[in-house]
TrEMBL record:
PANTHER family: HTH-TYPE TRANSCRIPTIONAL REGULATOR, HTH-TYPE TRANSCRIPTIONAL REGULATOR GLTR. The lineage of its organism: Bacteria, Pseudomonadati, Pseudomonadota, Alphaproteobacteria, Hyphomicrobiales. It holds the Pfam family HTH_1. The keyword Transcription regulation applies. This is HTH lysR-type domain-containing protein. It comes from Afipia broomeae ATCC 49717.
Amino acid sequence: MNFADLQIFKTVVEEGGIVKAAQKLHRVPSNITTRIKHLESAVGIPLFHRNRQRLHLSPSGELLLGYAARLIDLSEEARHVVSGTAPQGLLKLGSLESTTASRLPAVLAEFHRRYPDVRLELTTGTNDALVNAVTERRLDAAFIAEPPSSRTLSHLPVFRERLMVISSLDHEPIRNARDAEGQSLIAFPDGCAYRRVLQRWLRRDSLTTSRVLDLSSYHAIVACVAAGAGIALMPEAVLDAMPLTRVRRNPIPRAQSDIVTPLIWRKGEVSPPVLALRTLMASVGTAPKRRVKQNA
């Protein structure tokens, strides 16, 4: 399968026909037609349905179009990487809401200053949702709560976090899991790594038998805790970012409380924007260097 034929195929689809594709590529229409036939011969199946002078993508053509676009994008990324040109294009980044609120403002401001030609789209979600989005190529990279278990993902530890159990000010200090008995639990939905930490600290196989209030906002969680609706587990850095918050901070053992937030990306698929972000995080991250793990 010829790479140039894939580029021609993609242009025909984007331009809506042979003639317009030929004009854009500065070729004669007969040459475009010949190259499309060569590509169809190589894959062994028609890529277009031909209706008089009009072409319509076949189901196989739609499948090949996706692969062609990815191959062309990877080729362009490789050219930028080896040429040393400044990163540009779109970076689809994911992050935990806690990291977004407490850690990313300064990081994103510095990234924009260094790489103004990169357009950044930020999506927040739970740990598991972000991992799935990176794996499925809906995101290029993401800040999550724990090292990924998948061998298809690489990671760089960047932020050290300390988790705290918070309760209302009139609640007695919580020194162990027994002190939390009878309390409603306020947490992000399933898929949240902090929710799993809370489950382990409580020494429960699951939280299904507990009274759990699922919320998707730290501001809402803190407000409910302050009002006495229950207890929650959250990073101390988030609480520091909300100085007017009136809740009791209850420390838990470091075995559960101390975690390091990693940046993840797909192994072997480092685009220039992802490489730029990884380089920036390696220079400003707070995780100890001896624990850094970088795999392209």
